[in-house]
Amino acid sequence: MLRLPVFAACLALLPGLAPASDEAVSTFLLDNGMQVVVVEDHRAPVVQHMVWYRAGSADEPKGSSGVAHFLEHLLFKATDTLESGELSATVARNGGRDNAFTSYDYTAYFQRVAADRLEIMMRMEADRMRNIRLTENDIETERQVIIEERNQRTESNPSALFGEQVAAAQYLNHRYGAPIIGWMHEMQTLDMDDALGFYETYYAPNNAILVVSGDVTPEEVRRLAEQYYGVIPANPDLPARIRTEEPPQTAERRLIYRDARVAQPYVRRSYLAPERDPGAQEAAAALTFLAEILGGGTTSYLADALQFDSQIATYSAAFYRGVSLDDTTFDLVVVPRPDVSLQEAEDALDAALAQFMTDGVDLAQLERIKLQIRADQIYARDDVDRIANRYGQALASGLTVEDVQAWPEILDAVTEEDILQAARDVLDRRASVTGWLMREEAIQ
Amino acid sequence: MIRFVLTVVVLLSLPLSVRAEVEIQEVTSDRGLTAWLVEDHAIPFVALEIRFRGGASLDAPGKRGAINLMTALLDDGAGDLDARGFARETEALATGFGFDVSDDALSVSARFLTENKAESMALLRAALLEPRFDPDAIERVRGQVLTGIRADAKDPDSIAARTFDRIAFGDHPYASSLNGTEESVAALTRDDLLAAHRAVLARDRIYISAVGDITPEQLSTLMDELLADLPAEGAPMPDRVEVAIPGGMTVVPFDTPQSVALFGQPGLAQDHPDYFTAIVLNQVLGGGGFESRLMSEVREKRGLTYGVYSYLAPKDFGEVYLGSVRSANDRIAEAIAVIREEWAKAAAEGITQEELDDAKTYMTGAYPLRFDGNGPIARIMVGMQMLGLPIDYIATRNERVEAVTLADVRRVAGDLLDPEGLHFVVVGQPLGLETTAGN
Question: Per the domain annotation, does B383 fall within a domain?
Fold first, then answer.
């Protein structure tokens, strides 16, 4: 959930799959517990300044879904020293761009600006970590804005509404089952106390990560960070990040979502899956390959089986989101051709998965993927902001700097047997959610 | 192997003291192809951008969608390789190709490691010169295009865009979707795709740029091997379109909780003497970010929307000035009323000195931030060539912004902004809005 809509999203070839070798990355801790990451690139006099909070929608109290994202919007209002809107106006007046985003496990704020403006950014960002001053009018108006945001992203989009239902069915007992933007009926009741309660609890230096990338040195970042962030006291009452966990899934779950606005019906399958854990990323590495091998594009196993050999589908894909604090999901999608039913598409998917377990991994394909991962270490140097984002996201999701730096080698060591074992462990239909997105049935 | 190299050093001034340097060389090959190059050997890869002017607007009569389908098939089997073979080869080289087509250009974006240059360019040459258009590939990709067309028919944004384009562009190709219709795409034959290929991919409309680990000599050779065997001439360019948009409102009923509004009026060509002034004006009125008047009035003060924007949309053969907003069905009328008021207010009064100063600081400061990577720089340079901008344009661009005066903006606001002529297309179930007479 972004505070401001953006027109284009960048999809990396293999998200999260790159490396530490040639990166100029430094990390250190401030005395108050704030973690700092610096990624250097001196080719252009530009910096990106980001602050990530280890607080996202899955940390919200029951009954106030959407408050993490609501608060993200409210952080652009007044502080003790800034008028409402002044932070963004100041960034713009300095030729920069700013925005913020909220996810399940984190909320992040960033500015991209000429390198000599870093200090101004830090001064303002540090200010709003502790000093926001909200009015009832801010609450009223901005609540309308997030409701319109939900209207735009979710209510206007049958695929998004369907996705919410699939996630809710997947997570019986964990907050990943509630949408990041919130359920509409709870968003409508969010108030000043909800917002400030979340703010007071989670917005503190010992719950934050500063990530600066671009034309800076670690020494300069340390000096400024100590001056602006280092003086903010830690929150001694910061709660441990312990959430209700999912029970073992013992029943296959199925759902049908119908909407007159659906142009293209499809099948989606979701399985609960392990995430990247600190010091234990091997299973996630194998799943990362499994997603790429099964559904990573034209050369993938499912594309072969469903789009080329049998021509059942116009599109198929697999998704795995390894960076997550708690159990994540492994997802499959099959969009059938118009003359193919959803049942036929689902049957073909299951048949292809079964056949994959018999066929095993195409070793040439595995080698090509590994080669692309190595090549991405070269391409990534052209986009240090992407490296910076990778660190911010990982550190806010329970991983360490060492985990991030070990990841490329762990990926490189994955074997065929690891991938098949991950497939056997995760792709269990009895512990899955299968959703059908359908048109409203015609009334005769 | 190289005929001509012209070098221009461009300093990008950032506010205060910081400066970035982009050194652009114009490289002309033995066989007469020209490219702009930024040589940078820091990272061992190259970004290459190629554009063919005309794009999907060169579709032959009755063949709407042919160029789009042709573009989607370029890498779906080429030379000795079928679709999957081609994809496997690009993966094995860790090379990336992107093929896309818009109303005004077919674009090719390539990224390859220095060590794989020869093999990568051989693959790209096959895609550009020897696409196979295998019957099974045609049917597979046709199915994907038809899926997209059906999805657009139920998507409020697409419905709004199609409706607005019909009103603005009459019988010009811009008036219809470059995807074609279900009927036109279903009827396309392999011969139609071959004809589309001949119409678009020709040397008389090509623009090339490269950034990264490559010398002028290497680029010169690369261009000749890659592109010199393309036909010399393609299809004639489309005519200009006289944009005539009647003021008013068109409501397209669609059952959804939030209405989408697309609004617009005639715009300005990019080579118009007032274009920069208009860009500055729009930055204040409805440009990106939180600071514009539209964002401030519609979102920040009233909470009527998540986002509202306006932007100049100069196409090669006709220009519009567009904007968009989304609000709940019972609030869209108020959002539109506020936008109309702001349009009228800016037309009558222009902007303030403070707004002008802020817009200039933002625009001049943000410009150097765009040059942040080999791919982005290559895309900027190919875009500059298509606009006919001089090779030293980057150095002069901020001066052009700085030169805009408050009086200029007031004059252009009065000339350009036409509150009465603004036309709104609203898709949804908007309360209190109706289609105006004559639409």
Answer: yes
In the structure encoding, which two tokens stand for residue A316, read together?
């198929």
Q: If you search the block for the tokens 């377990």, which residue do you land on?
A: A357
* Nearest of B74, B158, B63, B160 to residue B110 by alpha carbon: B74
Crossing angle, helix B135-153 and helix B66-73, to 10 degrees? 120
A72 is catalytic: yes
Q: Which residues of B touch A152 (CB under 8 A)?
A: 258, 306-307, 326
pLDDT greater than 60 at residue A89: yes
* pLDDT tens-digit series, residues A378-393: 998 898 888 899 999 9
Contact (CB, 8 A) for A282 and A349: no
Question: Has residue B400 been placed in a domain?
Answer: yes
Mean pLDDT of A226-237: 97
Q: Do A304 and B19 touch (CB under 8 A)?
A: no
SS3 breakdown of chain B: % helix, strand, coil, rounded to 5? Answer: 45, 25, 30
Could you tell me the CATH number of the domain that includes residue B176?
A: 3.30.830.10
Query: What is the 8-class DSSP label of residue A157?
Result: -
Other beta carbons within 10 angstroms of residue A52's beta carbon come to: 28
- pLDDT over 90 at A212, yes or no: yes
Query: What SS3 state is found at A366?
Result: helix
B263 — phi, psi (to 5°)? Answer: -130, 160
Indicate the pTM of the whole model.
0.92
In what helix (H) or strand (E) does residue A148 lie, and over which residues does it extend? helix A136-150
A96 interfaces chain B, CB cutoff of 8 Å: yes
- Indicate the angle between helix axes B83-92 and B117-129, nearest 10 degrees: 160
Answer yes or no: are the C-beta atoms of B11 and B371 closer than 8 Å: no
CB spacing of A369 vs B307 below 8 angstroms:
no
Q: Which of A23, A60, A72, A149 is catalytic?
A: A72
- Could you give the CA distance from residue B275 to residue B272 in angstroms, rounded to a whole number? 5
Size of interface A-B (CB pairs under 8 A): 192
Going by C-beta distance under 8 Å and a sequence separation of 6 or more, which residues neighbour residue B194? B133
- The beta strand positions in A82-150, using DSSP E, are 97-102, 107-114
Can you read off the two tokens belonging to residue B221?
Answer: 């050779």
Amino acid at position A54, single letter: R
Which domains occur in chain A, in start order? 25-228 (3.30.830.10), 253-438 (3.30.830.10)
DSSP secondary structure string, A285-324? Answer: HHHHHHHHHHHSSTTSHHIIIIIIIS--EEEEEEEE----
**Tell me, what DSSP letter sits at residue A151?**
I
Yes or no, beta carbons of A149 and B19 under 8 Å apart: no
pLDDT digits (tens, 9 = 90+) for A392-416: 999 999 999 999 999 999 999 999 9
| Whole-number pLDDT of residue A10 | 30
Q: Is residue B159 part of a domain?
A: yes
> What average pLDDT values come out for chain B (439 residues) when binned by 10 residues?
55 42 90 96 96 98 97 97 96 96 98 96 98 96 95 95 96 97 98 98 98 97 97 97 94 96 96 95 90 95 96 96 97 98 97 95 89 92 95 90 96 97 97 85
Range of the domain at B274: 248-428
Predicted local distance difference test score (pLDDT) of residue B9: 54
Q: Are B183 and B284 in contact (CB under 8 A)?
A: no
Averaged pLDDT for residues A161-173:
97
Pairing state between β A328-336 and A266-273? antiparallel
Total of domains in chain B: 2
Q: Is the dihedral of CA A110, A112, A116, A120 positive or negative?
A: negative
Distances (CA, A) of B393 to A270, A296, B7, B10, B402: 52, 41, 13, 8, 14
Cβ A434 vs Cβ A254: under 8 Å: yes
Q: Looking at CA atoms only, how far is residue A20 from chain B in angstroms? A: 15
CA distance B46 to B114: 7
Q: Quick: pLDDT tens for A51-66.
A: 999 999 999 999 999 9
